[in-house]
Design goal:
- Strands 1, 2, 3, 4, 5, 6, 7, 8, 9, 19, 21 and 22 form a 12-stranded antiparallel beta sheet that branches. A 3-stranded mixed beta sheet has the order 10-12-11. The chain has a 3-stranded mixed beta sheet with strand order 17-16-18.
- Helix 2 runs antiparallel to helix 3.
- By secondary structure, it is mostly beta strands.
- The chain folds into 4 domains: 113 residues, Elongation Factor Tu (Ef-tu), domain 3, CATH 2.40.30; 95 residues; 139 residues, no CATH class; 90 residues.
- Strand 8 and strand 9 form a beta hairpin.
- It contains 8 helices and 22 strands.
- The two termini are 34 Å apart.
C-alpha cells in the first residue's frame, strides 16, 4: 500500500483537507528530482505545492523564506522530501469552505522548496589547512577520499545531513587515490567537495536520500541474471539482484524510442593533477615542486574520428613524479587514472547505441503493485536496483535494455494517491542468455498454464537460469 501524504513546515503539520485551521494543503504537490541524462550530475530536488492561508499569517510571516519543509508518505511512512522554502507567491481568491458551505476570501500560496543538495551547494566550510600551508588558511589539504569526506562532515556538513557515504571499495589492491588540495581562495562549497570525491568512483554522482537524510553514491547498476522460479504454483521471472515489474502496470504516453548524442560517445577523457619537479628551472637553481593538470583518453568501441564526441571526467586525483619519491612508493597512485578510464569506458560502451525509453509512469491508486515493488518505485532517490519489465513491448529488442535503472523523475500526490513519472537508463550489461528451449524448464511439474501471464516469449529469451 502506498497512500497518504504528511506535510510539515517548520515542524508544524499542515492539514490535507479543510478542518477549520488557518493553513490547508491543496492538491498539486510534486517533487522533481534526479536527472534525465545518465552522464549529468543530479540537480537539487524541487518541491512545488499550494496552500490555503485563510488568515494571512503565513503570507505576512517575515521568516517564511528558508523555513524547513518535510513531505512524507503516510503509509508506509517514508520521507520523500526535506528542504527549505524558497519562493512563495500569494494570490487573493474566493474559495468555497466545505465546513461552512460558504465562499470566503483567502490567500492561496504557491511555493517551491529546494532540497538539502541546494543547501550543500551554498555552504562553504573552513577546511583543515592553516596559515603557512600552500592551500591557505581555511582551504583543504591533500587527503585520501574518505578522509576528505569525514573532515567535511566534521567541519560543518553534519549540521545539514545525517551522514555522507564513503566510496565503495572497488579499487584493485595495486591502485590507490589521493585528492588534490583545495585553495582557500576558491571557497569550494560542500557540494563541490563531495562531487570531487565521488567523481573518483566510476561515473559516481552525488545522490541525496531524504528518508535517511544522507548523501549516498549514485552509481550505475548492473543487469541481474534472470531465472525462472516457482512461486505459489506459478512459473515467474526472478532477479537475484533486482526486481521484476509487470509491464501491464506501467503507463506511458507513447511508445517512442529516442537516441541522443549521449549514447554516441567516441572518446572518454580522465583529468588529474601531476605533482613533480619544475622542469623549467636551470641547473643549480633552487628546487621547486609544481602541480600541473593533465588528462589521458581512451576510445570507445564505436569511435568515429569524424564526430569525436568526448565525455570528460575531471577528477582532483594526484599522480606523482616517481623520480622524486622512494622507488615504488607512488606507483599505486599513478595507476589510478588509467584504472578509472578503463572503468568509465566499460560503462560508456554499455550505454553507447542504447535507445531511451519514454518516461514511465507508476500510479499507486490506478495501477497498484505489491508493497515490495512500490517501496522501490516511489522513492525519489537513485537506487542500485535493476528493473526488468515483464511483458514489455521492447523485450528482446537490440539496444533497448533489457534492464533499467531509475535515475530521476517527478513524484506527485494529488490528494487521492501517489504517482511517479520516472526517467530510466539502461543497466550495465551482463553476459547474455544462452539457454536452449529444452534448458528453460527441466522440472517435470509445471505446464504452460502455470506460467505467469505477464511473461512473454521475448522474456524467456532473456532467462539465464532455467527452472529445474
Amino acid at each position: 500500500m502506498t497512500a497518504g501524504a504528511i506535510v510539515t513546515i517548520n515542524g508544524r503539520p499542515i492539514a490535507s483537507s479543510w478542518d477549520g485551521t488557518d493553513l490547508v494543503a491543496l492538491a498539486g504537490l510534486s517533487i522533481r528530482w534526479g536527472r534525465e541524462d545518465p552522464y549529468e550530475q543530479p540537480e537539487p530536488s524541487i518541491l512545488t505545492m499550494q496552500l490555503v492561508d485563510r488568515l494571512g499569517n503565513f503570507v505576512t510571516d517575515e521568516n517564511r523564506v528558508g523555513q524547513a519543509v518535510v513531505v512524507a508518505m503516510a503509509d508506509p511512512y517514508r520521507v520523500q522530501f526535506r528542504g527549505s522554502l524558497s519562493k512563495p507567491r500569494a494570490e487573493r481568491r474566493r474559495v468555497h469552505n466545505p465546513l461552512t458551505n460558504l465562499d470566503e476570501t483567502v490567500w492561496v500560496v504557491t511555493f517551491t522548496a529546494s532540497d538539502v543538495l541546494a543547501n550543500l551547494g551554498a555552504a562553504v566550510f573552513a577546511g583543515d589547512a592553516v596559515d603557512g600551508w600552500v592551500e591557505g588558511a581555511g582551504g583543504w589539504s591533500e587527503a585520501r577520499t574518505n578522509v576528505r569526506l569525514q573532515r567535511l562532515y566534521d567541519r560543518g556538513a553534519n549540521g545539514l545531513v545525517e551522514g555522507i557515504d564513503t566510496l565503495p571499495q572497488v579499487l584493485p589492491a595495486n591502485v590507490d587515490r589521493i585528492m588534490h588540495g583545495q585553495a582557500a581562495k576558491d571557497a569550494r562549497t560542500a557540494l563541490e567537495l563531495i562531487q570531487q570525491v565521488y567523481r573518483t568512483h566510476p561515473m559516481g554522482v552525488v545522490n541525496y536520500d531524504p528518508h535517511a537524510n544522507r548523501i549516498t553514491v549514485g552509481e550505475f547498476t548492473t543487469t541481474s541474471p534472470v531465472a525462472l522460479a516457482l512461486s505459489a504454483g506459478k512459473v515467474v521471472l526472478s532477479l537475484s539482484a533486482g526486481l521484476v515489474v509487470p509491464a501491464s502496470k506501467v503507463a506511458v504516453d507513447s511508445y517512442t524510442l529516442e537516441s541522443t548524442v549521449a549514447e554516441a560517445i567516441d572518446v572518454v577523457q580522465v583529468g588529474y593533477f601531476w605533482y613533480g619537479k619544475d622542469p623549467g628551472l636551470t641547473a643549480g637553481a633552487q628546487k621547486r615542486t609544481i602541480y600541473t593538470e593533465g588528462f589521458i583518453e581512451g576510445r570507445t568501441a564505436r569511435y568515429d574520428a569524424r564526430s569525436r564526441r568526448v565525455l570528460r571526467v575531471d577528477t582532483e586525483d594526484i599522480t606523482f613524479d616517481p623520480t622524486e619519491f622512494t622507488a615504488g612508493s607512488v606507483d599505486a597512485f599513478n595507476r589510478f587514472p588509467a584504472w578509472l578510464l578503463g572503468q568509465v569506458l566499460a560503462i560508456v560502451n554499455g550505454l553507447n547505441g542504447q535507445l531511451r525509453l519514454p518516461p514511465l509512469r507508476f500510479d499507486a491508486r490506478r495501477l497498484p503493485l505489491p508493497a515490495a515493488l512500490e517501496a522501490v518505485l516511489y522513492r525519489p532517490t537513485v537506487q542500485n536496483v535493476p528493473l526488468h519489465f515483464a511483458g514489455s513491448v521492447y523485450a528482446g529488442m537490440a539496444h533497448v535494455g533489457p534492464q533499467f535503472q531509475i535515475i530521476g523523475g517527478i513524484l506527485r500526490y494529488d490528494g487521492a494517491g501517489w504517482s511517479h513519472e520516472v526517467n530510466v537508463c539502461a543497466a550495465r550489461p551482463n553476459p547474455a542468455a544462452t539457454l536452449t528451449v529444452a534448458q528453460l524448464v527441466t522440472n517435470p511439474g509445471p505446464t504452460l498454464a502455470d506460467f505467469d501471464p505477464d511473461i512473454s516469449l521475448a522474456d524467456l529469451g532473456l532467462v539465464t537460469t532455467g527452472l529445474a
